[in-house]
Design brief:
The protein has about 325 residues and is of the alpha/beta class. It has 14 helices and six strands. The longest helix has 23 residues.
């Protein structure tokens, strides 16, 4: 029996604030594509400003999938992402349209395209060192509280002095967007491996420019309703107990509203954490293949758009 041919698809990847949204909207418009968000925060309803979601007006022009599919107090695992992303992609194709994967959560891509849910839990030496340094500076209790907020089930079985295992659990949560307890329950149960033939379009820019973009974005978010968004979420009971509220910016603003830090400190920590995450993103995306890298230091020019469109059309078979 002849095996089913893998479906050619394209994905736009790169660090936070590199310009993925602008590229994806232009490419989707040219191709007649629909966007599948690959972002562990955009899956949650009501996390709008801090998750930097496309506006409702933009989503009416170009359909987006896997945005606002879970409430903030729900657990949304990597396996949930794989199941929903596969379903969305196949439905888009069956309607004669093109699925375009866009986002900056590396482990979601790996889970969908590389079957890493069946492999060992991911590791990141740099992140582990950051967490160990946090424990040394802020104390073991503070580290354990972070885990309790992100993964209360694992925190309940780990002693506060078991720094190595607490760090490992936080490492898994940070890399996958999924609590360690949930990750091990779902690992290996679902896979999209072999269904898709993916071409990655990687975006990068000069690091100093990227960091300025991150600073500018965080400033715009804090001035554009981010604190008010978090205050409203807290008033509804969506607090630091839930993984959704452990993302950069959200965690810091919760601490602000708890009276632990100033608003300025919250913004500064958000910037610092986002910069560190952008470095980890590039480490992960640097291992993806096949990938074609493009420099967005000069913004999205017509020439850059044309080059990306040409590569994607060639991969898709000029669909």
């Amino acid at each position: 029996m002849e095996s089913k041919k893998a479906l050619p698809v394209a994905a736009i990847v790169g660090p936070t604030a590199v310009g993925k949204t602008a590229v994806s909207l232009t490419l989707a418009s040219r191709l007649g594509a629909e966007i599948i968000s690959v972002d562990s925060r955009q899956v949650y309803r009501y996390l709008d400003v801090g998750a930097d979601k496309a506006s409702p007006a933009v989503r009416r022009q170009i359909p987006h999938h896997l945005i606002d599919v879970a409430d903030p107090d729900e657990v949304f695992s990597a396996a949930d992402f794989v199941a929903r992303a596969r379903s969305a992609a196949l439905r888009i194709v069956n309607r004669g349209r093109i699925p375009l994967f866009v986002g900056g959560t590396p482990f979601y891509y790996s889970a969908l395209f590389k079957n890493t849910l069946s492999d060992g839990a991911p590791k990141d030496d740099g992140l582990r060192r950051e967490l160990e340094e946090f424990a040394g500076k802020e104390g073991r209790e503070a580290l354990h509280r972070r885990l309790a907020a992100a993964d209360p089930e694992t925190a309940a079985r780990l002693h506060v002095n078991d720094v190595r295992r607490v760090v490992r659990a936080l490492e898994i949560f940070t890399l996958t967007g999924t609590a360690q307890s949930e990750w091990f329950r779902t690992a290996g149960k679902i896979s999209g491996n072999g269904e898709f033939d993916v071409l990655y379009i990687g975006l990068n820019r000069d690091r100093s420019l990227l960091f300025r973009s991150i600073e500018r974005r965080v400033g715009e978010q804090f001035a554009g309703g981010f604190p008010e968004e978090v205050e409203w979420l807290l008033s509804l009971g969506y607090d630091e107990r839930f993984p959704s509220m452990q993302g950069f910016g959200y965690r810091e603003l919760v601490e602000y509203f708890r009276g632990k830090i100033s608003l300025r400190e919250a913004a500064e920590r958000d910037v610092s954490q986002t910069k560190a995450f952008s470095r980890r993103q590039m480490t992960w995306f640097g291992k993806f293949e096949p990938i074609i890298w493009y420099d967005t230091s000069d913004g999205l020019t017509d020439e850059l758009s044309d080059r990306i469109e040409k590569e994607v059309r060639a991969h898709l078979g000029n669909r």
